[in-house]
Amino acid sequence: MMRGEPLVLGIESSCDETGVGIVRGTQLLTNTVSSSMDEHVRFGGVIPEIASRAHLEAFVPTLRTALDDAGVTLEDIDAIAVTAGPGLSGALMVGVSAAKALAVATGKPLYAINHLVAHVGVGMLGGTFADGLPANLGALLVSGGHTEILRIGNIASDVELLGSTIDDAAGEAYDKTARILGLGYPGGPVIDRLAREGNPKAIRFPRGLSQPKYMGTAEEPGPHRYDWSFSGLKTAVARSVEQYEAAGMEVPVADIAASFQEAVVDIITSKAVLACREHGITELLLGGGVAANRRLRELTGERCTAAGITLTVPAPSLCTDNGAMVAALGAQIIMEGRAPSGVSFGTNPSLPVTEIVLASGEDGRA
Amino acid sequence: MTVLPEWTVVHEVGSAAELQALAAALAPHLRAADLLVLSGELGAGKTTFTQGLGRGLGVTDRIISPTFVLVRQHAAGGSGPGLVHVDAYRLDGAAAVDDLDLEAGMAANVTVVEWGAGRVEHLSDSWLRVDILRPVGVLQTAATGGPVTAFDDDGEDEVRTVTLAGFGPRWHARQPPLLLD
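Predict the joint structure of the above. Result:
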């Protein structure tokens, strides 16, 4: 049916960004995003009902803008790709319903794809990797909902989860720490900014799952060799603040922010680089909203260089949630000859990373 | 109307691992349709407690924070109930809780709601309240005499008081005997 590189419309609605992107193969035509972030600030986090409503209101205008911007019509599109999970249930439902409606109305094939793998898919866009995805590729995804290290054999068919958080996502740890410190929401940017004024060595906060009983050795890995835990860190921040308050002392907010950030970034990067070294990964893509964090980029860069790993960080607009990454992954799946998902698949808030594209009638649950 | 508990029991735990062991010991006393309402400040150990509970129930999934997605469903490991893990912090009152449609899953699962106090008790005529408190206002001092500036990686220094209280007919005269080693 399609000749040459497919023209794919990608739809993303797993959290608070309504994204519509259009690609032709690996060429980015538009990346249009509407965010409801401002509406969630006063609640200190994304409110699902508000996000779902915002997706509903934003979808058609975002789609129109994307088509105009790319200079194509719905008739020109070869296929539609949509995020089926993981993410917020109600939010996913809006994007998936819209995608199914478009597929039925236009008769175009529909692909239900994995949000996390799509974050890696941006590596094919905007000249991120000039010659397409390299071999021996890994991806470190760090955001408000995710903290994962992946090995990518083939982006359309072979993605392996090497490690992930066992409690809070890194971005969530930032948000909760900011709440403890009274800094508002979202926590990432404000802590990153305050951290510059503080001493990262003032307080030694926990590096979760770093002890030998969790790490084991390369030959005999422990139960959490490449996994992260941030719950103990959060507790330590709360205890730290309380003891200054109890003593009637001023809380050293900048030092706590800097020491907290150092603990997060230190353990994320050391475990990610370890996973790369032990799995022959020589190219690492850093993605997710927390990829914007100054200290994370800096320390990941240093440690990758020391380990002989090439680090690639896409443009910020491609790191955060967007529709272009969904379209880019969709295009790869089509070029691999995978079958479309039809319109009878279901959303899955906990879709595992090994489910790259859903088959007809499935929702990726075991 | 103030509802009084059928019973209340207080446990002291000395580490994150002990908190999980307490929760795991509670698990055999739970059955499908039980509702647990967890309270405690940020970092008190609500998710840590739920991880121990999941282990005790034989849930094989990784139990990660439900904050981002609000509700996580974990299938039962064996013939026992599964676990539904909820973070109600961002839910503004009972109506927002009802939007999650937790009742649909309650019959086959143990439902655990973090930040659930005052938000989810209407879902059942009985519930188990779990309050996790860290000692606050006690000045901890390091060897130097100043505030503690080095924290253990494994939560070996996390002391907590866990108060269990049973509400409603399900818990009438049924205080779980928790034996910890």
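Chain A touches chain B through 50 residues (CB under 8 Å).
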